[in-house]
Amino acid sequence: LAHPSAALSNVQPSADSQDSFYLPEESDCMTLLLCEQRQDPQLFLLMRFQPVRGKIFLFAFPRQMLLQLDGVREPAGSIFASHGIQGVRTALEQSFSIPCDRYLMLPRSAFPQLLEAFGPTRLHLDRDVTLTLKQGMQLLDGQRMWQLLLSRTPASPVLQCELLPKLLALCIHQHLSLLSEENSSRLFTAVVNAGNSDLVYSDFDSRRKAADFLSRFCEQPAQIVPFSFVKNPDATLSLSDSAEKELLLCFSAESSELKE
Known about the structure:
Blueprint: E1 30-36, E2 43-50, E3 55-62, E4 66-69, E5 72-75, H1 76-96, E6 102-106, H2 111-118, E7 121-125, E8 136-140, H3 142-152, H4 157-174, H5 184-194, E9 196-197, H6 201-205, H7 208-217, E10 222-224, E11 229-231, E12 237-239, H8 241-251
Parallel strand pairs: 1-6, 3-10
Antiparallel strand pairs: 1-2, 2-3, 4-5, 6-9, 7-8, 11-12
Helix pairs in contact: 2-3
């Protein structure tokens, strides 16, 4: 569907820039847990804002992935059904010892408006989708992007976990200016008002300069964390050892101290 580059530019602030004296700090890092606001979300997304490393890490996992909550292993979807998004957040922390600072649940009705808030996005289509969405490079507004997603989203939750981070990374890279100090407040307000979240304004305000830093000096900060699963006899999924290692490298609280 799309082929966004995951490479991060090594662009650094110039010596005579007034921003060259600012560097993000560990306290600027934050992990957000996202899902669709419904009774049975099919997948979940972890997004780590990691300006110390010049990254925004993205990791999606399906509802069948096993997590541990208070010593009991069960699928993320079952934990959500019994304990809500807070239970999934706690289970992630207990299972992998990674911080989940805030959550955001978005209703499906909000997606077209949020895509519209990003602005037109360039996307290469490998084949015709509709009479107006033709093969080749297209410039899609929010409504047309949503139309494309509805028509091309795979039925498999695991395949959805591959697609969603790719599209999100594509939007981030094409609209980095939304992270600038002039525009980020509008984006934060639109996202928080669209759904259910425990994000507060101070979460944004204390990271405003770090977001601006990313928009200025990190050409492609979004990095998709690769995943692989082991299928269990009961049809649940366990994160493979190699995928768990990658997850910890990107999402652990100590990850900012690791070198690339």
